[in-house]
Design brief:
2 domains, 5-stranded mixed β-sheet, alpha/beta, 43% helix, globular, Nucleotidyltransferase, domain 5, two-stranded antiparallel ribbon
Length: 274
């Protein structure tokens, strides 16, 4: 396995072993059954009403019969990586020492694949513990180009997802994210700069700047995550992989009147031919 004292970098060791870097950062997260159950409730409440802060979440949980204090709700929200930053729910947290890039999508007409890609991270409850999911989405077609699951919010699993998307689909003109530390880090932005991809970041507090990924979180959680108590990371990856394939290939988007794959490939093929 990975040797932290090796002269080879962690990335090179992972390449030789044919494993993802994010899997080498696994850390068991001991957590009580009671906390897990409460976190699932908080996740559902936050998904439906992202404007609820810790005080109102505590009141809502108490009204439902939970004996819980605000300090515990705050602790669990921090563990889950969510907060009610008005009006945007945020999983990622900004690092004040990192450069923040301007938002480039305002008033832009996005009408073809690979014009704009978007990304985000969300909390995923499991039978024992939890994990984090990140996706790379094509803005025009809503197609999920790649995704990764990790036990930590380390930047490595975000880079893995980005590099996989670039490998399979080429490069977008613009890459949009929030101002989370994963996306403002030099490691992540360097990949974008290396491929000459323009960097766009959501305006502070403007959750609608990345609305299509936010909608994806609601779909995946209600259609897969909440229906399956993932027993392990392997189980979670298998179930999420099947759902992503269904989403891309069979689930018609209400606005587009077609599946993401249909929109992506039917639009991009004429561009390639030209």
């Amino acid at each position: 396995m990975i040797n932290p004292n090796s002269v080879l970098s962690r990335t090179r060791q992972c390449q030789l072993l044919n494993i993802h870097r994010s899997s080498t950062y696994y850390r068991a997260k001991p957590i009580s059954d009671d906390d897990q159950a409460t976190m699932r409730k908080i996740d559902k409440l936050h998904l439906d009403k992202p404007f609820l802060g810790s005080r109102r979440l505590t009141d809502t949980l108490k009204e439902g019969g939970d004996r819980i204090g605000r300090n515990r709700v705050i602790r669990l929200m921090q563990l889950m990586g969510i907060q009610a930053v008005y009006p945007k729910p945020r999983t990622t947290k900004r690092n004040p020492d990192h450069k923040v890039y301007p938002y480039l999508l305002r008033n832009m007409s996005i009408n073809q694949p690979n014009q704009v890609w978007a990304t985000d991270i969300t909390y995923i409850p499991m039978d024992k513990g939890f994990s984090y999911l990140t996706v790379i989405m094509d803005w025009h077609s809503r197609k999920v180009l790649s995704w990764r699951l990790s036990n930590s919010m380390d930047v490595s699993f975000c880079i893995d997802a980005l590099e996989e998307a670039i490998h399979h689909y080429g490069c977008p003109d613009i890459f949009n994210s929030d101002q989370g530390s994963q996306y403002t880090s030099g490691e992540f932005t360097q990949v974008l700069k290396h491929h000459q991809i323009r960097i766009s970041m959501d305006g502070k507090g403007a959750w609608r700047d990345n609305v299509f990924v936010e909608r994806l979180w609601r779909s995946v959680k209600y259609e897969d995550v909440y229906l399956n108590a993932y027993e392990s990371m392997t189980h979670a990856r298998s179930s999420l992989g099947k759902w992503v394939n269904y989403y891309n290939q069979q689930r018609k988007h209400q606005t587009l009147k077609a599946t993401p794959d249909q929109v992506y490939y039917e639009t991009i093929m004429p561009l390639i031919a030209a």
